[in-house]
């Protein structure tokens, strides 16, 4: 595996979900977001054009890795049977000495929360990352968001005392 030159993530299938891969640095690949109204609830409002979408993700990725040393991988979570989007998961992957570290995030839209989709999707994503040679996991979880803390625990992560932008860092093998 070469960090910064990741292949486009593969689709990941879980019991109830299909994780549809996206790379947000290429706005044209975000077209499914433009067509799925519910996803706009958690991606910052509806962009009117692909150019506005490209601009938003360019702003979000500033400083993430201008040298290409990091990979930023994203998947939309879709129901296997209906194809409806229920959220997304993402991983920023970087080299840290001998280790390859993935920083994880997951979001499930409000009407779909409480059904275990985040844990199912995160486990599928972590399995794929493991196959790619990732050796360490980090997640940032808001201290008041118990459901996200349970997902981190199910992934084998443990809470630390480190706060980053108001979120507790969870680490694991």
Account of the protein in words:
The chain is α+β, with helices and mostly antiparallel strands and 173 residues long. Helix content is 24%, strand content 34%. The chain has 4 helices and 8 strands, in the order E-E-H-H-E-E-E-H-E-H-E-E. It has helices at 31-35, 50-61, 117-131, 146-154; strands spanning 12-13, 17-22, 70-79, 85-96, 99-108, 136-141, 158-164, 167-172. Strands 1-2-3-4-5-6-8-7 form an 8-stranded mixed β-sheet, covered by helices on one side. Helix 3 (117-131) links the parallel strand 5 and strand 6. The longest helix has 15 residues, at 117-131. It is globular. The two termini are 18 Å apart. The mean pLDDT is 77.
Please describe the topology of this protein.
Layout: E1 12-13, E2 17-22, H1 31-35, H2 50-61, E3 70-79, E4 85-96, E5 99-108, H3 117-131, E6 136-141, H4 146-154, E7 158-164, E8 167-172
Summarize the structure.
By secondary structure, the chain is of the alpha+beta class. The chain has four helices and eight strands. The model has no long low-confidence stretch (mean pLDDT 77).
Looking at this protein, list some descriptive labels.
single chain, 173 residues, alpha+beta
Strands ordered across the widest β-sheet: 1-2-3-4-5-6-8-7
Number of helices: 4
**What Rg is obtained from the alpha carbons, in whole angstroms?**
16 Å
Which series of helices and strands comes N to C?
Answer: EEHHEEEHEHEE
Number of strands: 8
Average pLDDT metric:
77
Helix % is 10-25%
Distance between the termini: 18 Å
- Percent strand equals 25-35%
């Amino acid at each position: 595996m070469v960090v910064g030159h990741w292949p486009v993530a593969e689709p990941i299938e879980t019991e109830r979900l299909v994780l549809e891969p996206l790379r947000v640095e290429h706005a044209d690949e975000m077209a499914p977001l433009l067509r799925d109204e519910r996803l706009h609830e958690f991606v910052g409002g509806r962009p009117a054009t692909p150019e506005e979408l490209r601009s938003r993700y360019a702003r979000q990725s500033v400083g993430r890795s201008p040298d290409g040393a990091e990979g930023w991988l994203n998947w939309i979570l879709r129901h296997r049977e209906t194809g409806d989007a229920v959220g997304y998961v993402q991983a920023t992957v970087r080299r840290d000495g001998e280790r390859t570290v993935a920083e994880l995030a997951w979001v499930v839209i409000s009407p779909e929360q409480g059904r275990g989709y985040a844990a199912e999707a995160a486990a599928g994503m972590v399995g794929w990352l493991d196959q790619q040679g990732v050796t360490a996991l980090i997640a940032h979880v808001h201290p008041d968001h118990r459901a996200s803390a349970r997902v981190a625990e199910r992934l084998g992560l443990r809470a630390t005392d480190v706060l980053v932008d108001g979120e507790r860092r969870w680490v694991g093998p």
